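retry 2 of 3: previous attempt timed out while embedding D-gluconic acid. Reduced batch size to 1 and resubmitted. Inputs unchanged:
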Amino acid sequence: MSHPLFSLAGRTALVTGSSRGLGFAIAEGLADAGAGVVLNGVDAARLDASAAALRAKGHAVQALAFDVCDEAAVVAAFAQLDAAGIEVDILVNNAGVQFRKPMVELATEDWRRVIETNLTSAFVVGREAARRMIPRGRGKVINIGSLTSELARATVAPYTVAKGGIKMLTRAMTAEWAAHNIQANAIGPGYMLTDMNQALIDNPTFDAWVKGRTPAGRWGRPDELIGTAVYLASAASNYVSGQIIYVDGGMVSVL
Ligand code: GCO
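retry 2 succeeded.
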């Protein structure tokens, strides 16, 4: 029996980039905690399959296919939710891409694409959500950061800069929205077993490095983010804002 502070009953969560990976795991965890969920992605077929999987568990699920980098599509998506009477109480800005290349070889358009997808989209979707949360006098924003919100690794500069920006965007949201009872926080996942990291997982040298560099001695699983996501989405965190919680097996805390 979980403490009532952690119940999400009667709340709706929009999770961007949630047809698979971390986003899907977080959406499923929020649904298991009682929230209605709105899944988002750009691949409608994959999104529908993910929504069906959650509905099969008895959860209330909407699937909204839109590109978080397309501002008009984001605005239209929120208008669609408004028209359907669906209020986003909890926003999880999870959508993101990775692009690994040394900066001296990196094309500016690839830099811009990663920054747009991983950082600017969190501002745009966050702004549209906050415009509706403020009149309601409550809301939760959970931005998905990274170890690279704190530490840099060679060959992932745009991702690192974007995720560093996510940490400070979370604080900027706090500065402007905490007075409206909106709590904005971030989660910093460590090296997780996801499709985005498959090339690293399959690389024996990198795999050994992660296991040696991480105090827990292993990669993290997407489901290991659920507890922190439920906490930050629930009344249990109503006096917490501007924080980033690293779910990383201890990696960011040690040399
Ligand atoms: C990389 C990885 C990392 C992880 C994660 C770590 O190339 O180093 O993709 O960025 O995905 O963000 O927190």
